[in-house]
Amino acid sequence: MASSTLERLDDGTIFGIGNPLLDISADVPVSFLEAYNLKANDAILAGSQHKDLNETILRDYPNHQFVAGGSTQNSMRAATWILQQPGVCVYMGCVGQDKYHQLLHDAASKSGLTLAYQIYENPAEHVQTGTCAVLITGNDRSLVANLGAANHFTIDHFNDPKNHEHVEKAKIFYTAGFFYTVSPDTVMRLCEHADQTKKLFCTNLSAPFVCEFFGDRLMKAIPYVDYLFGNETESRSFAKNQLNLDTLNVKEIAKALSELPKKNSERPRVVIITQGADPTILAIAGQNIQEFPVKKPPKIIDTNGAGDSFVGGFLAYLALGKSNEEAIQAGAYCAYECIQQSGCTYPEKPSFDAKTFVA
Questions:
Q1: Is residue 358 part of a domain?
Q2: Is residue 7 within 8 Å of 355, Cβ to Cβ?
Q3: I want to staple 76 with a disulfide (CB 3.0 to 4.6 A). Which of 16, 197, 245, 336 is the partner?
Q4: What is the pLDDT of residue 206?
Q5: Domain that holds residue 279
Q6: Residues marked as catalytic
């Protein structure tokens, strides 16, 4: 079914919460990386030596681009894009009171998101909106992230009656694992709400460091998780550090994750593990494990955001009531288009048809 003929969903059907970042992307010479002691294809947190990095990009590289980033926000943009329905996704996270907030707000709004940002204001300290410098040298990318205000989200913002209207209206909830490092109490509140109202709670393993150092927070949420996403590296880290599984077999890990105790036993847990160009694994508790081949694009420009895009496409088709198989295809299509663009971006219009988009 082509995106233009999809059923119209209610505004606010999908609710995402996470760490909002303004991606500032620019083509730079290798000498620029060297000046900041950076490496091609690296991904680091900004240090004191990078404090003027963003401003230098804005001043010296006029062809820079702004993208509303952060893992969960990327997924919300992908879902909105494939559905071609502005307003269907609500996104919440914490930003600063600065020009980066306005730039991020403009970029996210242009993507069709309904925003419920918390604005961190503290006269005693200036905390900027989170950013990620994306420094492009040929086919290489060096990422320098500063989480900034994203680290200051509080549950009070989530509980505010005006904001909680978004929660009450939504039917599907999603957060990436990165948010567990910021406000685990908000995650658990969302889990409890989803359980009480029998709505869907979806989450992501997100990164090996999350699985290793914050895995206990993930494990606390797991009983509430209806849909769990991750890639092969993350799932192996989680299996090793949280489940004590002595295996690297992704199918076995997916099966084990799907069969972990679940609070709402009426719905079996669905686990989806992507493996880049290798087949995507689908495991549903008590059922056979399936593999889905991945269609290779004619070109690959940038793989950053592919996983986020996959989740967005999947959630969009989940919201439409489609099968897991069709949702995986929709997710794969979003990732397919994303990796052919620079940054986590997409063509103007999708052209997805689940019957024809096959490997």
A1: no
A2: no
A3: 16
A4: 93
A5: 3-20+70-93+153-338
A6: 308
Complete DSSP assignment for 257-274: HHTS--S-TTS--EEEEE
Question: 173: which strand partners?
Answer: 15, 201
Can you give the pTM of this predicted structure?
0.94
Dump pLDDT digits (tens) for 102-161.
999 999 999 999 999 999 988 788 899 999 999 999 878 889 999 999 999 999 999 999
Structural domain total, the chain: 1
With a CB cutoff of 8 Å and minimum separation 6, the contacts of 83 are: 3, 6, 9, 316, 319, 320
pLDDT per residue as tens digits for the range 93-102: 999 999 999 9
Question: Which residue in the block uniquely carries the two structure tokens 């990327």?
Answer: 74
* Position 294 in a domain: yes
Contact 169, 319 (CB under 8 A): no
Looking at residue 2, its pLDDT comes to 45
Assign 3-class secondary structure to 140-169.
EEEEEEECHHHHHCCHHHHHCHHHHHHHHH
The domain that holds 8 is classified in CATH as 3.40.1190.20
Q: Which of 84, 112, 87, 111 is nearest to 4 (CA)?
A: 84
Answer whether 275's CB lies under 8 Å from 229's CB: no
